[in-house]
Amino acid sequence: MRSKITVVGAGFVGSTLVQRLAERDYADVVMFDIIPNMPQGKALDLLQAGPVLGYDSMVVGTNDYADTANSDIVVITSGFPRKPGMTRDDLVKKNQEIVSQVTKEVVKYSPECIIIMVTNPLDAMAQLAYHTSGFPRHRVIGMAGVLDTARFRTFIAQELNVSVRDVQAYVLGGHGDTMIPLSRMCTVAGVPISQLIPAERIEQIVQRTRDGGAEIVKLLGMGSAYFAPSASVLQMVDSILLDKNMIMPCAVYLEGEYGIQGLFVGVPVKLGAQGLEQIIEIELSQDEQSLLQKSARAVKELIDVMGI
Fold it and tell me: Residue 292's beta-bridge partner residues?
């Protein structure tokens, strides 16, 4: 029996993700949106690409949550996108009502699913879904660190004119201005970047990583990134659905790990068939630990705004 994945939100991130999932050919995919006929039209278009690309994934577009029933994984992308000049924090009240309602419907029809949160502000929305769903923490995971790390790796690879495959890095903390690209632990083919790039230039790359989403929003003028975010979710789904046990930075609910209690914060985790299989605690410097605590406080402020 094929696995079933639901993507809530058929905008740029959601529909691009559905395309990537269909082309994986390991699950049937449901694309939900509240806009009448739009997800149905996109789903039909994707189905008709199957004979050309050679996939047999069933892609269903719907405006009815009943069609999402018994999903193994539900990815939530729905919400207001960030506009130029708008911080992720500005989004919190706008998207709270949407994510809360979506989560209730997800729980109603797929009570055993794993939720992957993509809607911004990411960490706060993941906490909201966790709070609303009542799911155990291993079944609610936020996509943030995979994307931020991909941006960091991209900029390092460009700087050194090397393959992105040779660049290894981690970005921890919240998905926003307080994220922590761990340049100390970044390597290129095993060589620390401190031996390859001047410290001042590394700091510039770190800052560009923090501003990665805003840079794309500014360039586009309307909307925000979707190719890299959808690819990042795909990597998470791969690891869960295929039980790969890949280690990647994700936003998860911490219960004392890294000295943080009761908040979603981005840290390295192992993802497998159960969702969150393990939180990997790495030794941070005093400065890095301080930055992580600052990031956690920023998430807490948003939680307080939502009143949960």
Answer: none
Q: What are φ and ψ of residue 249, in 5° steps?
A: -80, 125
Residue 92: predicted pLDDT: 87
Three-class secondary structure of residue 197 per DSSP? coil
Domain with CATH 3.90.110.10 in the chain: 145-306
Lowest mean pLDDT among 57-61, 86-90, 267-271, 291-295: 86-90
Other Cβ atoms less than 10 A from the Cβ of 163: the count is 10
What is the assigned CATH class of domain 145-306?
alpha beta
Integer-rounded Cα Rg, in Å, for the chain is: 19
Q: Cα–Cα distance between 215 and 225 in angstroms, integer?
A: 9
Write down the CATH superfamily of domain 3-142.
Answer: NAD(P)-binding Rossmann-like Domain (3.40.50.720)
Q: Which long-range contacts (CB under 8 A, 24 or more apart) does 234-240 make?
A: 234/17, 234/20, 234/21, 234/24, 235/146, 236/116, 236/141, 236/143, 236/146, 236/271, 237/5, 237/21, 237/73, 237/75, 237/116, 238/24, 239/271, 239/272, 240/73, 240/114, 240/271, 240/272, 240/273, 240/275
pLDDT tens digits, one per residue of 40-50: 999 999 999 99
State the span(s) of the chain assigned CATH 3.40.50.720.
3-142
Which DSSP string corresponds to 42-104? Answer: HHHHHHTTHHHHT----EEEES-GGGGTT-SEEEE--SPPP-TT--GGGGHHHHHHHHHHHHH
Phi (first) and psi of residue 301, to 5 degrees:
-60, -40
Query: For residues 192 and 185, what is the distance between their CA atoms, to the nearest angstrom?
Result: 7
DSSP state of 304: H
From CA 155, how far away is CA 212, in angstroms rounded?
10
Spell out the residues 6+ positions from residue 256 whose beta carbon is closer than 8 angstroms to its own. Answer: none
Q: Which residues are catalytic?
A: 175
Predicted TM-score (pTM) of the model is: 0.96
Tokens 């207001």 locate to 80
